[in-house]
């Protein structure tokens, strides 16, 4: 997916930030060592921009290798 410039409402940013933090907290120390937190955020924003709200799809995409 290619990231396009999108403006999110403040409440959406708040929700997305919470999701990123939840995902980060759920990762093991080994996964955290090999994962860039900003990449999680970018992938999540790509999916939100595309309108994908399926949690399993989100997690699969976010945690898959780039």
Can you give a write-up of this model?
- The protein is an all-alpha fold.
- The protein has a domain at 10-17 and 34-66.
- Helices cover 68% and strands 0% of the residues.
- The chain contains 4 helices and no strands.
- It has helices at residues 10-26, 29-33, 37-50, 55-63.
- Helix 1 (10-26) crosses helix 3.
- The chain starts with 9 loop residues before the first helix and ends with a helix.
Strand/helix succession = HHHH
Mean pLDDT rating: 80
Separate helix tally: 4
Structural class: mainly alpha
Summary tags:
single chain; 66 residues; mainly alpha
Give the helices and strands, then pairings.
Layout: H1 10-26, H2 29-33, H3 37-50, H4 55-63
Question: Nutshell version of this structure?
Answer:
With 66 residues, this protein is an all-alpha fold.
């Amino acid at each position: 997916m290619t990231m396009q410039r999108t403006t999110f409402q403040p409440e959406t940013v708040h929700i997305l930030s919470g999701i990123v933090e939840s995902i980060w907290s759920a990762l093991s120390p080994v996964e955290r060592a090999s994962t860039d937190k900003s990449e999680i955020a970018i992938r999540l924003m790509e999916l939100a921009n595309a309108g994908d709200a399926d949690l399993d799809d989100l997690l699969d995409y976010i945690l898959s290798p780039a």
